[in-house]
Every structure is written in structure tokens, then in C-alpha cells.
């Protein structure tokens, strides 16, 4: 950092003390992370991390003698106000796009920091600094453009469909190989033209992030966001190498590791390999093979679980004439052990409060009600949990897939709301389909299944759900879940 | 590579490995707050942004430096403040639903 600073210095903090404090603050962040492992202590963990960052800012200002430099404060105050405002306004269903956007913002900030470092180091002898600064610029910019596209898709400003350009694979491959080449060239390049090298790295990185993100479809978003989360941390850590800052390196590394971990979990839950995602081999290509002709290829991609959002013809029109509202009423009044499977369709229909009311009704009949959450339900890891918690569902009623999957066979009734692929039994045996091998909720083992879905189209994967054509014990209520559930509740 | 750079590489590896192991213990129901908390943490780059801005002000092109530096400060601060605040809000909901209950996972 000394390279960037020519301030006359009277250090209150000695080097040794400053480094020690940096290590202690990094440990505090790890402690905060440790507290995140339990619901009860998670809030404290977040506060510990926040305090660590605040102290990190303060000791840096003191150590580097920039505490009295008024020019830095307007930006800090502006960022603080914007950040707090956004945090208090955002709705829980919008969390994925907020996280995506924040990933991008973090990547951009790190890229700017690294740009400063590169320009001051360019042409010098510090190869490590020059290399890391350019890599940080590149990773940060990829994160920025990828995240902006992802956030746009999640916020429905951009299409949720994978956008595949002609020669898409070629573009991404070429950009992917040009980047390291550019970085090497600028390292051996002479003193002149630092800005040119920098801007070409920025440009190619932005293009790569864009090309990568536009071909990702709605249901792959949990993986993409996790990956971008990781990259935003990696960008900060590498920028930390470039400017020789312990805090940036250690905390950036923690974020990078966290994002990578979540990416792995999501990949496993969707039966996807990370290289497939990176190279854009999304499930869409597979789905074109198995989607029967005449089906709404577009709509199937729109929502991961074949759920709908438009208000259609609600009512209790089912494919089986004998199962009407009466049966459903009886089913609900008799059930003693009920499992509810919420999907993203529930969230899109804003039906979580109605689902909770239904659960209350069931409980007042003496039923035991639990919720089963598939790891990729929602648009980011843990999203469905947050949506249910927001609706006031006590979290001890919410079970992760592995904890509840053996209980479906003993349950009297399973109620599915806006979920499809995550309970599609084809995943067990339909080789060659995108969902083959994906762990699923064993809803088909339950003797009575009540499904609230917008329609009977295949889910995001494009694979037909055999459960829909099962005649025995399956009742399907089509339509917008917020309408059909309300109607059911008023009938009970 | 200087010795401090070597030390940084070691710090990077240790932090990544320890972080990875700790995150392993976070239940999946907390993954969304975990991610937004990580957002906030990646805003640590504000430290770099502050240093870069201060450095640029005494450099050869203070105006351009100040503009980009301030941009980085604003962006990183949004990350820090927004990330921690929204995580706190979410975890508050978990706490509210958990009133009078001690059961954890």
C-alpha cells in the first residue's frame, strides 16, 4: 500500500500492532461465521462480522493516516445511506436479485481498487503485484457483468430464458482464452499504455461475464448466484494481494470459500457439474430432447417447477371427474400426518400466507403438519426457508429434504404447492433426461397427494411428471395457487 | 515475490480452508442470510478503496482518481451496509418465529 500513499505519517499504530489487529479481526469474522451455524446465535454472528469490518475500516484509516481526509467521507455516507435504504425496502422474494446485485457491486469495487494498484505498478518490477492486480480487475469485472445480468433476469427486466447466441460456445471459449493472454501481454508490455492494457482487460472481462450469464436459465440461478458470490470474494482477496492488505486477503478468501461451498451444494442438489454450468451446458439443451411437441417450451422455462403466475381459470377442474372439492375437504379433515411441499410457484403466486392458513386449519383438526424443502426450491440457497419464515411459519416445522424424505410413506397427505421437478419420480429412472440422478422429494411414496399447480406442463427440466397421470391418490387443483387455495380455505 | 506477499498467500489459504470448514456447519435454512452476510463481507474491499482514493488525491491525476476512488467507496459501502442490514433483518425474522422456543436445528 505504501506505493499508493505518500502521506507524511505519524503512526499511532505500529506495524506489528496493526498486523496483529488485522489477524484478530479476521478471526472475529471466522467466529461470526461459526455463530451462523445455529439459528439462535446467527444474529450475533452477523453483528460480530459487522463490528469486525467497522473496526477494520477504522484501524486502516488510523494506520494509514487518512482519518482527517474529509474527501473520503461523502462517498462513505452516500454508500451507507443507499445500502441501509435498500436493505430496509427489499422484499424477501427479491432477495436473490439483491444478493446478485450486491455481488456485482462488490466485484466492481474490488476491480476499481485493483485498477489503481495496476496503474501505479505498471512497468515496475513487482510482477506479483501487477499480475494479481490485473487478475483482480478481470475477476471483479466478470462478477459485475455476470451479476447484473443475473439480477436483471431474476427481477424479470431481462428474459428468464437462456439466451443462446449463434456460436455462443465459440464466443465464451475465445474470451476465456483471450483474458489470460491479455494479462500476460500486459505483464511483459513496456511502461507505456497501462490504461490501454487495463481497459482491454476490463472490456474482455465484462464481455465474458455477459456471455456467461445470458445463457443461464431461471432454474440454474441458485448455482449462478452462489458462483458469483464466490467470485466477488475472490476478487476482493486478489485485490488484497495487489495492494498488500491482510484484511482484504483473509476476508475475501472466506467469502470465496463460502460461495464455492454453496455452489457445490447447489450443483449436487440439481445433479449438475460445475464445468457444465461454466460452459453453459444447461438443462435446456436436454429438455429440447424430451419435451413432447406442442408444449409451451417458453413457459416451461419461465418457472423452474412448472408453476404459473398468470391468473388463469381457477376453479377445481381436475383431470379426474370424481375428485372434486368434496373429496379434498374430506381428505383434509381426515389427515393426521401432513407434509407440505412448497415450490417457487408458491412464492410467485404470493401464496405462502394462504399455505400457512391451510396448515393452521389442518392443525386445528389435530393434524401434524410439516414442510419439506428441497435444496434448490426457490431462486437461491435457503430462499424457501426465508419465505416461509417471513410468512410466520415456525422454523421447527420446516424440514430439509434428507430429514423428512423417509416420512412421506407414512404421511396421510402430501400437499404440493407450486413445485414439480423436485418431486418428479422420473429423476430416479429416466436416464438421459436433465433430472436423472437428481435427489428428489419422495412425494410419490405418499398414499394421498394434493397438488396445487398452475398447469400440468412439465417443469423447468421439460420432463413429464408421471405423478400427474397417476389415477389413484393424486388430486390436482390447477390454477393460480393464491386463488385456488383461497377458494379451498373458504370451502373448509 | 516478497516475504509479505508470501505471508498473504498463506493467509489466503488458511482463511479459505477454515472458512470452508465452518460454512459446512451452517444449516441450509440459513443459507440465504449466509450469502447476504458474505455480500457484506466482500465489501471489505472498502479498505482498499479508501487507501486508493487517498493515494490518488496526492497522485498525478487527482480528479480522475478521486472520481473513481469515490465510486469504489460508494459501491463497497453499499455492499457493507446493505449486506449486514438485510442479513440482520432476515435473522430477526428467524428470531421472532423462535420466540419462547429453544429448539434449534
Overall description:
- The complex is a heterodimer of chains A (492) and B (105).
- With 492 residues, chain A is α/β, with parallel strands linked by helices.
- Chain A has 3 domains: 7-89; 97-281, no CATH class; 301-491, Rossmann fold.
- In chain A, 57% of the residues lie in helices and 6% in strands.
- Chain A is built from 19 helices and 6 strands.
- A 6-stranded parallel beta sheet of chain A has the order 3-2-1-4-5-6.
- In chain A, helix 5 runs antiparallel to helix 6 (168-188) and helix 5 (127-154) packs parallel to helix 7 (194-214).
- Chain A is globular.
- The termini of chain A are far apart.
- Chain B has a domain at 29-97.
- In chain B, helix 2 (31-42) packs antiparallel against helix 4 and helix 3 (46-57) packs antiparallel against helix 4 (62-97).
- In chain B, 57% of the residues are buried.
- Chain B has 4 helices and no strands.
- The radius of gyration of chain B is 19 Å and the shape is flat.
- Classes of the chains: A alpha/beta (492), B mainly alpha (105).
- At the A-B interface, helix 1, helix 2, helix 3, helix 4 and helix 8 of A face helix 1, helix 2, helix 3 and helix 4 of B.
Descriptive terms for the model:
heterodimer, A: 492 residues, alpha/beta, Rossmann fold, 3 domains, six-stranded parallel sheet, 6 strands, 6% strand, B: 105 residues, mainly alpha, disordered C terminus
Amino acid at each position: 500500500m505504501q506505493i499508493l500513499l505518500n502521506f507524511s505519517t505519524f503512526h499511532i499504530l505500529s506495524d506489528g500492532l496493526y498486523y496483529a489487529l488485522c489477524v484478530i479481526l479476521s478471526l472475529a469474522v471466522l467466529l461470526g461465521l461459526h455463530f451462523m451455524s445455529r439459528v439462535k446465535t446467527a444474529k450475533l454472528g452477523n453483528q460480530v462480522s459487522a463490528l469486525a469490518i467497522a473496526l477494520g475500516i477504522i484501524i486502516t484509516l488510523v494506520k494509514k493516516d487518512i482519518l482527517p481526509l474529509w474527501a473520503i467521507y461523502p462517498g462513505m455516507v452516500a454508500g451507507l445511506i443507499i445500502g441501509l435504504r435498500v436493505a430496509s425496502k427489499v422484499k424477501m422474494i427479491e432477495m436473490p436479485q439483491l444478493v446478485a446485485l450486491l455481488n456485482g457491486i462488490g466485484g466492481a469495487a474490488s476491480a476499481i481498487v485493483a485498477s489503481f494498484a495496476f496503474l501505479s505498478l505498471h512497468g515496475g518490477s513487482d510482477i506479483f503485484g501487477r499480475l494479481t492486480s490485473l487478475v483482480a480487475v478481470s475477476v471483479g469485472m466478470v462478477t459485475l457483468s455476470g451479476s447484473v445480468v443475473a439480477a436483471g433476469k431474476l427481477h424479470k427486466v431481462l428474459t428468464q430464458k437462456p439466451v443462446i447466441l449463434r456460436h455462443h460456445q465459440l464466443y465464451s471459449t475465445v474470451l476465456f482464452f483471450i483474458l489470460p493472454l491479455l494479462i500476460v501481454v500486459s505483464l511483459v508490455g513496456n511502461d507505456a499504455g497501462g490504461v490501454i492494457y487495463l481497459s482491454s482487460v476490463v472490456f474482455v472481462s465484462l464481455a465474458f461475464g455477459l456471455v456467461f450469464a445470458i445463457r443461464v436459465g431461471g432454474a440454474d440461478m441458485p448455482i449462478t448466484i452462489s458462483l458469483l458470490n464466490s467470485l466477488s470474494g475472490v476478487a476482493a482477496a486478489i485485490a488484497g494481494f495487489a495492494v498488500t492488505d491482510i484484511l482484504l486477503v483473509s476476508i475475501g478468501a472466506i467469502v470465496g470459500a463460502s460461495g464455492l461451498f454453496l455452489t457445490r451444494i447447489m450443483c449436487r442438489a440439481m445433479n449438475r457439474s460445475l464445468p457444465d454450468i461454466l460452459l453453459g451446458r444447461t438443462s435446456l439443451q436436454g429438455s429440447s430432447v424430451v419435451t413432447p411437441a406442442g408444449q409451451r417450451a417458453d413457459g416451461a422455462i419461465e418457472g423452474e417447477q412448472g408453476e404459473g403466475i398468470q391468473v388463469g381459470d381457477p376453479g377445481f377442474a381436475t383431470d379426474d371427474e370424481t375428485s372434486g372439492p368434496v373429496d379434498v375437504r374430506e381428505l383434509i379433515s381426515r389427515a393426521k400426518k401432513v407434509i407440505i411441499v412448497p415450490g417457487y410457484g408458491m412464492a410467485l403466486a404470493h401464496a405462502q400466507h394462504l399455505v400457512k392458513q391451510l396448515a393452521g386449519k389442518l392443525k386445528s383438526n389435530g393434524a401434524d403438519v410439516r414442510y419439506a424443502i428441497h435444496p434448490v426450491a426457490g431462486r437461491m440457497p435457503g430462499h424457501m426457508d426465508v419465505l416461509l419464515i417471513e410468512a410466520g411459519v415456525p422454523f421447527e416445522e420446516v424440514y430439509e429434504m434428507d430429514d423428512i424424505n423417509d416420512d412421506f410413506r407414512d404421511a396421510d397427505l402430501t400437499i404440493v404447492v407450486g413445485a414439480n421437478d423436485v418431486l418428479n419420480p422420473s429423476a430416479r429412472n429416466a436416464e438421459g433426461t436433465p433430472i436423472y440422478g437428481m435427489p428428489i422429494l419422495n412425494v410419490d411414496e405418499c398414499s394421498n397427494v394434493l397438488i396445487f399447480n398452475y398447469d400440468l406442463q412439465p417443469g423447468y427440466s421439460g420432463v413429464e411428471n408421471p405423478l400427474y397421470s397417476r389415477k389413484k391418490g393424486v388430486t390436482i387443483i390447477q390454477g393460480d395457487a393464491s386463488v385456488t387455495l383461497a377458494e379451498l380455505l373458504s370451502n373448509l | 515475490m516478497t516475504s509479505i506477499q508470501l505471508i498473504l498467500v498463506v493467509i489466503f489459504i488458511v482463511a479459505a480452508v477454515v472458512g470452508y470448514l465452518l460454512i459446512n456447519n451452517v444449516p441450509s435454512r440459513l443459507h440465504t442470510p449466509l450469502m447476504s452476510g458474505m455480500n457484506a463481507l466482500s465489501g471489505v474491499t472498502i479498505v482498499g478503496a479508501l487507501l486508493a482514493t487517498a493515494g490518488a488525491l496526492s497522485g498525478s491525476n487527482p480528479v480522475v482518481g478521486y472520481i473513481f476512488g469515490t465510486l469504489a467507496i460508494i459501491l463497497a459501502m453499499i455492499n457493507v451496509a446493505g449486506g449486514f442490514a438485510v442479513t440482520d433483518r432476515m435473522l430477526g425474522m428467524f428470531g421472532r418465529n423462535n420466540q419462547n422456543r429453544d429448539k434449534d436445528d
